[in-house]
Amino acid sequence: MKRKRLAWTLLIFSLPAGLMAQGSGSVPRPTRTGGYDSSPFAVTRSVKGTIAEIQAEKGVVVVQEKNGKRHVLKVGEKTEFKAGKKTAMAGKKHLSLTDFGPGQPVKITYLAADMTITQIRLLRARK
User: Fold this and answer.
1) pTM of the predicted protein model
2) CATH number for the domain including 63?
3) Range(s) of the domain holding residue 84
């Protein structure tokens, strides 16, 4: 009987400490070096518009929304380039920044912290 009571007492007193320790330090802190954050909780945003300008030497893409708002975004080492279905580049597997040009409709997903593009997707032109 004493062993059971001792086991339950230990469980009751150790449970809150175990619950408070959940998640403390289990996720790496964000980096300030401009690289990708390895945290699964990195905040991303997306914008749809047309490519207004590409500065390939600087790794910069300028996207303009329908309302005229412009976004200057950086291309990163891990940026994915994709083409949507029924687009001119739909069959290509290995796309790069040089495959894209001004006037093309795109959807860009980027990290809000440093404006680094995670994915550029070519969209089908609207008629």
Assistant:
1) 0.66
2) 2.40.50.320
3) 44-122
